[in-house]
């Protein structure tokens, strides 16, 4: 028998409209004591009238204290439901991506909050960021076996979200083995080895796949600069699609080693040049050296991790794109990216507009991209749509 979580009057409207999150200040604490609930527990969510609204997993210590996992009050998240949801998620991805390389599970959007699974062909990388999913870890691993039968399964359970949830961090290959701690993948006809053990997040960022495909159409014969390159997702693909020369900038020497290895996988190592160092400082050095590029990709980590960081983060986006614009040839293109959920959709184009006026350049926005189909968006939860990529041609002022 599940405990109940009763809401205050009228707060159920958001859930009925399609949202899945329950905030701690929406709970009728005279009926439900949050202190009586255990992190990871499944509860029946009730409207103020007592009418059941579904089942949620809870963490009473968090601002978002509950996440709805079913609209049926009798449907709990168990091994059977996990298998079913993995099958549904897989079928939607395979409509789009033929190489079995995709984000297989994207948390709330796939009815599995606190869970991310990336698939690299025969390798599955699982990332758990909530107590509820950690309690179901063995069921999740078993479900991955049943649905996909991968040769290798990795638990990449590290990162800030686990710390927030009070969970230990660990990385473990729970089935099979890896080659050099990496997993092979193909994206936009380009081969990579993703560092799934020692790399960032799951080792790869599938979210920009469609934006990289757009760029690949534009780089033939161009001189390209990839800033915050990580393992070369943008840069190596550009070289593989005809760029004459590609320069990759990253603060991590290890990441640049991976760039070189991935370039070699595709036979384009002679086109690649790597610059190790802080991106802001490296771009200034390139400017001082008189370097110029036809295409520049600026895809930084999240400059706005929390809502209170919006002002400082927007300034950071402005600074890095300003320096990049100064490195463009007269008829150059900048691709300004952001993975900051808290950056409003209209802000990055507006930042480029302001920079154009300050630098006496004409900015023409030709394409605005977002995340790919393997990061599906729940319309009621705008936070599930976080990625931005603005393609802008930068011309002399007319």
UniProtKB/TrEMBL annotation:
Keyword field: Cytoplasm, Methyltransferase, rRNA processing, S-adenosyl-L-methionine, Transferase
A GO biological-process term: methylation
The S-adenosylmethionine-dependent methyltransferase domain, residue ranges: 185-389
GO molecular function per UniProt: methyltransferase activity
PROSITE patterns, per database record: PUA (PS50890)
InterPro entries associated with the record: PUA-like_sf, PUA_sf, RlmI-like_PUA, SAM-dep_methyl-trfase, SAM-dependent_MTases_sf
Ranges where the RlmI-like PUA domain occurs: 5-71
Pfam family, one: PUA_3
Cellular localization per UniProt: Cytoplasm
Family, per entry: Belongs to the methyltransferase superfamily. RlmI family.
The protein's name in its UniProt record: Class I SAM-dependent rRNA methyltransferase
Species, as recorded: Thalassolituus maritimus
